[in-house]
Amino acid sequence: MKEKGLLIVLSGPSGVGKGTVRKEIFSQPDVKFEYSISMTTRAPRTGEVDGIDYFFKSREEFEQLIAEGKLLEYAEFVGNYYGTPVDYVRETLDAGRDIFLEIEVQGAQQVREKFPEGLFIFLAPPSLSELHSRILTRGTESDEVIKGRMEKARKEIEMMNLYDYVVENDEVEKACSRIQSIIVAEHCRRERVQHRYKKMLESD
Ligand code: 5GP
């Protein structure tokens, strides 16, 4: 039986730069995984192409896809639906190729429930570590400002619970290379490779 591909999910808080990091990863010449193009009901932005950036759908079309069970996950984000077509994900994994999803956190949670064996990477804002050092050095911000930041930081840190890895998006290139390294390491995980060696012994 063919070995299945790896399901890779990149997620994190809104505004952290998931899209930028994902685009940078896929601009590399040697990417070895497929990108799962999402469906959305939001209008295309200038330069976005249907079938490349997203599959752009009407609300009716999207709700029909939900009803037919064609989405692996979906979420409503700032008044629009976003979702991952399930068939492409399954076909890619079954063909033994890795697939990469870049989605918001509610969707990532749904994928974790369906694919607990996936690789879940949380992209964290550099403001979390900045906040930490500012609190330590007691910066000039008022208590009120610090309190607001702490609350936001708490929520973001709590979101991490679901993930296997946390990558700080301090610099796009650095974040991308950490993500690439994590994927390479994941392929070497004992649980993923041991069965090959067992087979070798059995055929002896
Ligand atoms: P944007 O409108 O800026 O392209 O995307 C808005 C948010 O939707 C981003 O956080 C992006 O990661 C997320 N997103 C994109 N595609 C999907 C998807 O298929 N499912 C979910 N749950 N979120 C998505």
TrEMBL record:
Main location: cytoplasm
Any Pfam family matching the protein: Guanylate_kin
EC code(s) of this entry: 2.7.4.8
Binding site for ATP: 12-19
Keyword Iron recorded: no
Annotated compartments: Cytoplasm
Domain Guanylate kinase-like: 5-184
InterPro entries: GK/Ca_channel_bsu, Guanylate_kin-like_dom, Guanylate_kinase, Guanylate_kinase_CS, P-loop_NTPase
Keyword Hydrolase: no
Gene Ontology molecular function terms on file: kinase activity
Keywords attached to this entry: ATP-binding, Cytoplasm, Kinase, Nucleotide-binding, Transferase
Catalytic activity: GMP + ATP = GDP + ADP
Similarity comment: family membership: Belongs to the guanylate kinase family.
Classification via NCBIfam families: guanyl_kin (TIGR03263)
Protein purpose: Essential for recycling GMP and indirectly, cGMP.
Name the UniProt record assigns to this protein: Guanylate kinase
Originating gene: gmk
